[in-house]
Amino acid sequence: MSIQANLQKFEGRIGYQVIVDRFCKSSRNVPDIPGRKTKDWQDFIPDWEPDSDGVYRNKYFYKGDLKGLTSKLDYLKELGIGLLILGPISETEENHHYDVGGQMKIDPYIGTEEDFKNLCYEAHKRDILIGVDLIFNHMGYNSEIFQKALHGDEKYRKWFYFNPDGSYQYWYDFKNMPLCNQRHPDFQNHAREVVQFYVQNGADMLRLDLGENLDGELQHVIANSAREINPEVLIINERWEHANRDDNYDYYTDMADGVMNYPGLDAIIIWLVDNNVAHFQYNMDRISRYPKEKQKFLWNPLGSHDIPRILNLLHGEGINHNPFAGRSWHLEIPWEKPNDCDTYGFRKWESEHSYRQFPEITRKRFFLASTIEYIMPGIPVIYYGTEVGMSGQKDPFCRCPYPWGYEDLVLRNHFVKLGKMKLENNDILARGEWDWQVTPTTLKMYRRSEAGTIGLIVNNSPNDFYPNENISNYKEVFSIGESSVNKVAPYGAIIYRV
């Protein structure tokens, strides 16, 4: 069994996920590392084409760093952010930093251990908790640890899966990410050391990459390792589908406190774009059956590093409209072949359909989608730049540098107001009961606690909507368009409190 955690301090917070290399670059001078390319911050177009040998590599960097991130904490506080989640920051070959080795040496471009400690210190002064992204499903092929294993070091060879012919098992189709033997005691001790390194230096939350693939025994080790130092550490598993499938046992034990709620985001996207009630109802019903204590810590993503930007999804161009064929962000379908995919063709299409001025209907859907996520149970998590209109299809187009000086301030102001509304009503929104009523063009969502009721009415149509709420003594706390409890404007919304 894992050590029990006290997680009350996370309830009702607003999250913000960053790729440190892409968020803010400080003035510190960092020498170039051989084999890496440094791109200018204003060069938003990623290096999406393969190298001359046909391999897609990720060895271009922008040198965003922890000091730059620390300098923007007050900006995040204006958005109401109370949980800042960093992508991986350890030294690796590629810019995404998921091709890990030991994970306890911070990448020189990103900063130092002292920089990380200072970020945690300055964030905590502002009541912002810090999350880190850790990887225990695999390591990087060129990591020192795997190279020792590959060349016969018995200490490390047992950390991986080698076949009789000397080949190794790797994750999915990524040969540069050999799978780890999660049940080997020495590897579990390594995981313990990694977890404690970050928690001792100030981390409050762990996001476990590919948490849905992690062994239950290892997850207990991770949880106990963190909570031996800090019993208030929150653990969130990456998970792409519902957490209450029969084979998903982690969510009903003390191994994970929450999961990334991709199904909830997909339901919102498809309802706003296609008016698909059945898909919305099915997904939200499944989510509503999660344990109540777990619902409080759902990571409700407003984008992420693995899917297209929210504006692109809501624009609807190229998305998957058939829920039976996958989620809305399964854009690759036209390029997929039996046991293969035309990666170049797909990326070329992405490069031509990533960055654009979106029509007004897309922006209206964007306002509605974010408002729904702020009312749902859990922690809404803004993927960096979403709040100022960043666009882009899948990786690498969704991982561009933050556009300082070129922000959409109308969108940003929406998030400032939305954050203020949430924080002022957390006596209901942090732990209130949840239900909803949905039609092809309208959504009513309610949160109820002993403190009162929060009601959200969304009009996803070009016509005025006249709801029949039969309420009195209410207070309107947030609106989109010229909306009220009695009349909701086209593509408008109203949040009220009773």
Overall description:
- With 498 residues, the chain is of the alpha/beta class.
- It has one domain: TIM Barrel (Alpha-Beta Barrel), CATH 3.20.20.
- 30% of the residues lie in helices and 15% in strands.
- It has helices at residues 20-23, 66-70, 73-78, 113-125, 144-150, 154-157, 185-200, 216-227, 262-274, 277-288, 292-295, 310-315, 343-352, 360-375, 409-424, 426-429, and strands spanning 14-18, 37-38, 60-61, 81-86, 129-134, 205-208, 234-237, 258-259, 299-302, 336-337, 340-341, 379-383, 433-438, 442-449, 452-459, 475-480, 493-497.
- The strands form four sheets. The protein has an eight-stranded parallel beta sheet with strand order 8-7-6-5-4-1-12-9. A five-stranded antiparallel beta sheet has the order 13-14-15-17-16.
- α4 (113-125) links the parallel β4 (81-86) and β5.
- α7 runs parallel beside α8 and α9 (262-274) runs antiparallel to α14.
- The longest helix has 16 residues, at 185-200.
- The two termini are 42 Å apart.
